[in-house]
Amino acid sequence: MRQFDPQPAPHIPAPSSVRRMMLQVLVALIPGIAAHVWFFGPAIAIQLILACGFALGFEALCLKARGRPLLPYLNDLSAPLTAVLYVLCLPPLMPWYTTAIGLLFAIVVAKHLYGGLGHNLFNPAMVGYAVILVAFPLHATSWLPPASLAENPIGLMSALEAIFTGGLPAPLSFDAITEATPLDHWQNGISSGQMMSEIRQSPVFGDYGGVGWEWIANGYLLGGLYLMARRIISWRVPVALLGSVVILTLPGSLIDPDTNPLVMEHLFTGGIMLAAFFIATDPVSGSTTPRGMLIFGAGVAILTLIIRRWGAYPEGIAFAVLMMNMAVPLIDRHTRTRVFGT
Amino acid sequence: MSIDAPQDIGQRFWRFHGGLSLRHWKQMSLQHGLEQAPLPAQLIVPIDQQIGTPAELTVSVGDTVLGGQALTRRTEAHHVNVHAPSSGRITAIEDRPVIHPRLDCQRCVVIDTDGEDHQTTLPAWDHWPEYNHEALRERLAEAGLAGLGGALFPTHLKLDRSTEQPTRLLIINGAECEPYIAADESLMRWRPEQVLLGAQILSRILDAEQCVIAIEDQMGEVENHLRQTLKALQIDNLAIIKVPTIYPEGGERQLIRVLTGDEVPAGGLPQDLGVVVQNVGTAAASYQAVVDGQPLISRVVSVTGRGVNHPVNLEARIGTPVWFLIEQAGGYTEQAARLVMGGPLMGISLPDDDRPVTKASNCLLTMIDTDIQPVAEEMPCIRCGKCSEVCPAALLPQQLLAQIRGNQLEEARALHLDACIECGCCDYVCPSQIPLTQTYRQAKHDLALSDLAQQQADRARDRHEFKEQRLAEQKARRRQRLESRREQPDNSKSDDIKAAIARAREKRQAAADQNCDATESQD
Ligand code: SF4
Ligand code: SF4
Asked: Alpha-carbon distance B407 to B325, whole Å?
């Protein structure tokens, strides 16, 4: 008689794991990040490394405190993904301690206090981002201009100095090197009665979005399409989100193009692409039912546009996602699918 | 009904939700034809080899039996017999390790074979069309026919003409959708006449308007064999339909959906739609049972996988130990790491190979390390929704999981846990390696148990109430008698009050119970 080790079915190897999924998402972010480095300099790379370090550190501490095994959870890459998404939402020269605080809220509060991987109600990266937006509004909105437009592009050493000491080598100063983003221009311009055509005169505007931004958005789009093709994310959230943006901004840009940005400008400026493919698609804090995903994506789009137009913040992705996160249990309950034979 | 003209079947296919495209692996065991397994020295025959309670055992230790001799007597309509697979002496009737989804041991009749293989059969009915459907049904039950696809549902129960609506369609299911399993395919390839004539018999019993054999679109050769045989036998009322290969298409409900577009109601039966599905192996065994009078004492088992040296399809006696069949397939290879009865998606992983094959054992799959899922740490559900994408029952497995893990079994029931066909698709795609199917199976079991307990409690309560009432009446009578004798109103007053209080309490209790019942029936 030969003995075997009985295991539950199925017996063939699973085609995916949490780690593999997260890894694919990280890979899909590479084009966007590369474009970011190309247009805005290497500061973001420093920020990414720093943030991943903090995220893994906090993750390890929390796992330890909760008596969970370290290896499988540090290995699942969910913490680094949170860190990367967090960084991509904020200006690259954020001082190191804001990154620490942001990830503290993301990993410790939003993730582990809610029960760890799979149990968080809110998107951790967006919680961290929102906290920093509120607590450090100045830093959180001090964006660099594209390197091509900057008088003094920020090199690696200056970026390091800025991030770790909060200062910049003379003759640079924060006031001098930061620049309003296209979104700031819209919001300030439109509220002070400028025409879109005047606003577009600013050199930060490129062909259909912001200079540099449009290419970063293209990078996210490319990565997002890859994820959709590999079925890592469902098409529903991105299609609903981007589709809603188109539907909601089209009438305005046709009827009154003087005071409304064009559809393309909405899509390729700010964080819409990132949100559509990488943030609103976070499975844990999003809806899981097919119709729920459509509602979730559309909701994020609507709230983002409202905040862009009327809110106190130029970009509303974080708050839009967090608000929709709150609605998820309700959405899920009311969008259950029809079961076979019922 | 979506079928008006019978010839519609096979003209188009309907989709079912989800499912998986899997690598086939069936050719592995189909290289050498269908071989006869030799007789082992000992046969271990589980008495319970059907859905529902088993028939009553009629033999005892020390008896000598013939092959084909019934070991049981049918005392209820749903019973099917179990037979001695070969001749020999019964040396034990005891609990032995078996292959079963939940149980480790079951009562078995142990037969030491004498090697002579003397057989007895039921009368052969060459002219079977002369017998009426009731006689034929009875014959199938006598001969021990139960769903050979693995479900072991008594065949004759599915062929009941009297109670159900007329059968518009009989589907002979040859779409074994799990990888590796080739038992049905080898039957269709090497014994097509048995399958086709068996289908004729089943169709006749049901008086089915139409009968089709569904095979997978990858079974090209099988189709040729079947068509040639159809022609040779001059059968013209039987259609062969190739269906797209998507797991779990061999599932009854999925197959019906694909062919007819109709969905069997959750909690209902195919018969509700006037459709009956029988497995190819069952059809062949029905032929043998009726025409040859041959009871079900053997079945085709695929002994396959990269963990055995010479994968093969064997016709093995029921009760043959697994290790004996593995030996017939050239024994284990060095890397053999897991032994499974069934396919890689739903199969039962066995702790050892000293267990007998049953009427349900379609495949013995031995897998090597690189073929199997490494045992990984279960991660939390990340709500990725992949499980609901592939679920052929269109359930929301992650919501089911959350309810079951939160001990909300009634909630899970409301989410149609009972519609889960335990196909394992959700498990397969789950990135967190959560044993979902196992969880659902257990939860269904728990729910069934709690329903049973509830029924018993209801009955007990009824009995209790009845008793209370009787006691109260007795008391009242006694008091009346006392009162009439003594004529002392003072004493009886306090009694009256007590009785009134008791009555009020009873009323309240009854109302509460009723409420309870009402909420339950709402669920
Ligand atoms: S596939 Fe697994 S991890 Fe994904 S939602 Fe379903 S149960 Fe959760
Ligand atoms: S096992 Fe049940 S829940 Fe899972 S995919 Fe199959 S039918 Fe759906």
From this structure: 43
ipTM score of complex: 0.89
Residue A6, preceding peptide bond in cis (omega within 30° of 0): no
Q: What is the CA radius of gyration of chain A?
A: 21
Contact between chains at A9 and B332 (C-beta distance less than 8 A): no
**Can you give the pTM of this predicted structure?**
0.84
Q: Which of B177, B349, B347 is nearest to B279 (CA)?
A: B177
How confident is the model over B410-446, as pLDDT tens digits?
999 999 999 999 999 999 999 999 999 999 999 999 9
Taking an 8 Å cut-off on Cβ atoms, the answer to whether A283 and B354 are in contact is no
* Amino acid letter, B45: V
Decide: B373 and B312 in contact? Cβ < 8 Å.
Answer: no
- Residues 6 or more apart whose CB falls under 8 angstroms from that of A164 comprise A95, A96
Question: Which one has a higher pLDDT value, A45 or B497?
Answer: A45
Nearest Cα residue to atom 5 of ligand 1: B383
Regarding the beta carbon of B423 and ligand 1, being less than 6 Å apart is answered: no
Q: B363: helix, coil or strand? A: strand
DSSP string of B272-292, one letter each residue: GGTEEEEEHHHHHHHHIIIII
A266-296: per-residue pLDDT in tens? 888 888 999 999 999 999 999 999 999 999 9
Report the C-alpha gap between A340 and B257 in whole angstroms. 10
Per the CB < 8 A criterion, the answer to whether B172 and B199 are in contact is yes
Report the residue count for chain A. Answer: 342
Cα A218 off chain centre by: 14
Taking only residues 234 to 293 of chain B, the set having a beta carbon closer than 8 angstroms to any beta carbon of chain A reads: 253, 257, 263-268
- How confident is the model over B293-313, as pLDDT tens digits? 999 999 999 999 999 999 999
H or E stretch covering B339: strand B336-341
In this prediction, what percent of chain B has a pLDDT beyond 90? 71
**For A201-215, what is the mean pLDDT?**
80
Strand-pairing partners, residue B336, are B368
State both tokens at B391.
Answer: 């679920």
Say how many Å lie between the CA of residue B383 and the centre of ligand 1: 5
Beta bridge partner(s), residue B101: none
